[in-house]
TrEMBL record:
Compositionally skewed regions (Pro residues) per UniProt: 136-149
Native organism: Edaphochlamys debaryana
PANTHER family xrefs: NAD(P)-BINDING ROSSMANN-FOLD SUPERFAMILY PROTEIN, RETINOL DEHYDROGENASE
Family of the protein in this entry: Belongs to the short-chain dehydrogenases/reductases (SDR) family.
Protein name per UniProt: Uncharacterized protein
Location of the region described as Disordered in the Swiss-Prot/TrEMBL record: 1-30, 126-150, 227-252
Biased composition (Polar residues): 11-23
Feature: compositional bias, Low complexity: 126-135
Length: 429
């Protein structure tokens, strides 16, 4: 049984408009695990990562001679998808893959300029043949110029709960349908404990808590919107549904939570979710990613309690792969060389490690296109196969047992509700 997350007592520092400066670093978290059990858990996580790195080397070598075709050549015209952190890395590749299939994609990002550039880059990408109203290529018809893909950028800073609430309020005012939320944005293992403007540990808030708040609020809005549409007996757009899930034809909303293989380290952090008594970057990241995985499973349990939502809404978690992104590269460079911090004599070794990561080390990482193909499994795969599941290595995978514990999930919901001040409506209870 999980020990209660009594460490999540809430903000201890007032907001001053800046991320708070770190206080503690590199201490093993208080946990009910013996050193041997903790060592085995970390060893398991490490070995799974190494195995995946070798799998990436193989895949990258294969792709030098053979490129797989595009998966899911579905036409998503009329669908509306939100991707948090869609301006970079895995989020960008996923947003582009969805837009290429005709979906309208909203990049929910904290930096206006980076988001605008990403939206422009996606809009210029050619659609997948056969999607977005483009005909499949045929030798007899000359190619028509492709239309720009449908994408926009909206502000969302997951380090600030008021930004999450403002995003949801704007969404409600817009009255738009919502088919898919990809809770992707993330922060990994800053070497020192860092607080958000809300005074919470940054990984816990950005990776889990703000996504929990965002997903719950947007689902509530979508359920209320479809219920109102049903009551009015009118349709507000293609496939907008005919009630708060009261019809099996309601298309429903899918929530994809981006977790990580590192969730297996998460139970070590469970007694102190905000890392108030100690901070170890990797384990705190694992705690936030375990919380994210639990969120997918618990949300699906809640959908399943309501027959109309069970038929329509889906929650799924995914480890997208160890990929060549700013997050992963910075992690391997910084965390991998943290032992040499402040020791001038060791800096040549650190430079060699960085040079390795910039060159040959990249072979151990997946490309963002490879990860976006896996993300499409989570976004577009069959609900019946995915609901409440965890995807990794391109298939449904067994997560850590801690992710399956409904008592731990209830505790997490209580902590999240207290820290955000948000109580999910009866339809999500
Ligand atoms: N790469 C991997 O190997 C790997 C493995 C397992 C899981 N993941 C997970 O995959 C997800 C995407 O990571 P990535 O590798 O694609 O990293 P990335 O390229 O660094 O992208 C991270 C995204 O998150 C955004 N973000 C960070 N803090 C934010 C905040 N406060 N509010 C809004 N957005 C914020 C970033 O925005 P800015 O551009 O403004 O910083 C960026 O768009 C993360 O959840 C990560 O934990 C990655």
């Amino acid at each position: 049984m999980a020990s209660p997350p009594d460490g999540a007592k809430g903000p201890t520092t007032s907001s001053n408009g800046q991320a708070q400066k770190p206080q503690k670093s590199y201490a093993f978290p208080r946990s009910d695990h013996t050193p041997l059990a903790a060592g085995l858990r970390l060893g398991h996580t490490f070995l799974e990562g190494v195995g995946e790195g070798l799998w990436n080397v193989w895949n990258n070598a294969v792709e030098c001679v053979w490129r797989p075709g595009e998966p899911y050549p579905h036409d998503l015209s009329g669908k509306v998808c939100i991707v948090t952190g869609g301006n970079a890395g895995i989020g960008f590749a996923t947003a582009r893959a969805l837009a290429r299939r005709g979906a309208h994609v909203v990049l929910a990002c904290r930096d206006r300029e980076r988001a605008r550039e990403a939206a422009e880059a996606i809009a210029r990408t050619p659609p997948l043949p056969g999607c977005c109203g483009t005909p499949s290529p045929s030798p007899s018809s000359p190619p028509a110029p492709p239309p720009p893909l449908s994408v926009e950028a909206l502000p969302l800073d997951l380090g600030r709960m008021d930004s999450v609430r403002a995003f949801a309020a704007d969404w409600r005012r817009g009255g738009r349908r919502l088919d898919l939320i990809v809770c992707n944005a993330g922060v990994m293992a800053p070497l020192q404990r860092t607080l958000t403007e809300d005074g919470l540990e940054v990984q816990f808030q950005v990776n889990f808590l703000s996504h929990w708040l965002l997903a719950n609020q947007l689902l509530q809005i979508e359920h209320e919107r479809t219920a109102a549409t049903h009551r009015d007996g009118s349709k507000s757009g293609p496939g907008s549904g005919s009630g708060s899930g009261s019809s099996p034809s309601r298309p429903g909303t899918r929530v994809v939570f981006v977790s990580s293989v590192v969730h297996r380290a998460g139970p070590l952090q469970w007694g102190d979710l905000l890392s108030e008594s100690s901070y170890e970057p990797y384990i705190t990241y694992g705690g936030s990613k375990l919380a994210t995985l639990i969120a997918a499973k618990e949300l699906q349990r809640r959908f399943d309690r309501h027959p109309e939502l069970r038929r329509s809404d889906t929650a799924v978690a995914i480890h997208p792969g160890i990929a060549r992104t700013a997050l992963a590269t910075a992690f391997f460079k910084d965390y991998g060389a943290a032992w040499a911090q402040g020791q001038p004599a060791l800096q040549p070794l650190v430079r060699m490690w960085h040079a390795f990561m910039d060159t040959a080390g990249q072979a151990f990482l997946a490309t963002t296109d490879q990860t976006s193909a896996r993300m499409l499994d989570a976004c577009l795969g069959e609900s019946s196969e995915l609901a409440g599941g965890y995807l990794a290595m391109g298939r449904v995978y067994a997560p850590d047992q801690a992710a399956e514990d409904p008592t731990r999930a209830e505790q997490l919901w209580a902590v999240a509700s207290r820290l955000t001040g948000y109580t999910p409506p009866p339809s999500l209870s």
